[in-house]
Amino acid sequence: MHTTTGPAPTDDGAVPAIEVVGARKHFGHGSRRVQAVDGVDLRIGRGEVVALLGPNGAGKTTLLDMVLGFTDPDDGTVRTLGAAPRRSVRAGRIGAVLQTGGLLDDLSVRETVAMVATLHRKHLSVDEALARAGAADFSGRKVSKCSGGQQQRLRFALALLPEPELLLLDEPTAGMDVNARREFWTAMHQEADRGRTVVFATHYLDEAEEFAARTVVMKGGRIVADAPTAEVQSLAGTRVVSFRWSGTGPVEVPGATPLPAVGARRRLTGPDTDAIARRLLADPAATDLEISHAGLEEAFLGLVAD
C-alpha cells in the first residue's frame, strides 16, 4: 500500500514552525549516489505534535538535519519559524535532542548544562532545566558514568535551556528502559502543554500512537503518508481479532493471517474477521475475544512495504 493523504490542517494564518518546499538532498556520486530526501513538501504549524516515521534509510534524519541547518538542500527550500534554519538555531528558537554527540565525558551533568547556558543570552536556570528534563537526581554524575538514557535526559535539558519554540527529537528514547521512556514522555507532554511545537522521529510506534496528533511516514526519501495519527492508522484498512489462547499448538483458522502477539494475546487478521471470530468462539481454547481496527504498526508496515 502506497497512500499519501493530504497534510493535517495547520494554523494557516501564522508563520509555520517548519516549511519545507521541494527539498532534495543526495550523498555520493555515480553508482554510490544515494537520494536521501527526494522532493519533500512539509508544513508544520505552531503548537503541533508530529511523529516522523520510516524504516532505516527513509530520510528522516537527513530531513531533520536540514531543518536544523546542519546541511542545506540541493534543491528546494527549508524555513523554520519564518527564517533560515541556522538563524533560528542561533536565536535559541529551536532545541534538539539528537542520538549521539555533543557531550564531554569529563564534565558532570550539571557542569555541562551550566557551560552550555553561558552560550545563550536568555535561558532557564540550570536547576529548572535539569528538573524539567528529569535529570536533577543524577546532576552530579560524570557524563561518562551516565547510562544512554541518562545522557538523553541531559540532551533534553540542554535543548530546553533557551526555552525554544520548536523541539526536534531524533530517536529521543534510544537507550532508555520502559520506565525511563514513560518518564521522558511525561516530561515531553508537559513541554507540549506549554505550547511548544514538537517533532520527533522514532522507531517505537507506540510513542507515535500515544503522543503524536499527526504522523508523517517517509519511505525512500519521500513522504508516503501525512495525516492525523488516527487517519494513518485507518490506512491499514483491516480489523484484528485478538484473544487469549490456552491451546498447546498453533492457532489455525482458515482465511486468517497471524500478526505478532501482544503480551499474552494472540492476534489474527483477514478479509472476514467476523468469520474468524465465529470460528474461535467455537474453540474452548480461545477466550476473551476482541475485534478492533488495525493499529499504527500494521498501517506503517503496509505503507513502507516494497
TrEMBL record:
- Recall the GO molecular function terms of this protein's record: ATP binding
How does it sit in the bilayer?
Answer: Peripheral membrane protein
Q: Where is the PLD phosphodiesterase domain?
A: 115-142
- Where the record annotates domain ABC transporter, the positions are 18-245
Coiled-coil spans in chain: none
Top-rank taxon of the source lineage equals Bacteria
Which CDD domains does the annotation name?
ABC_DR_subfamily_A
Q: What is this protein called?
A: ABC transporter ATP-binding protein
* Organismal lineage: Bacteria, Bacillati, Actinomycetota, Actinomycetes, Micrococcales
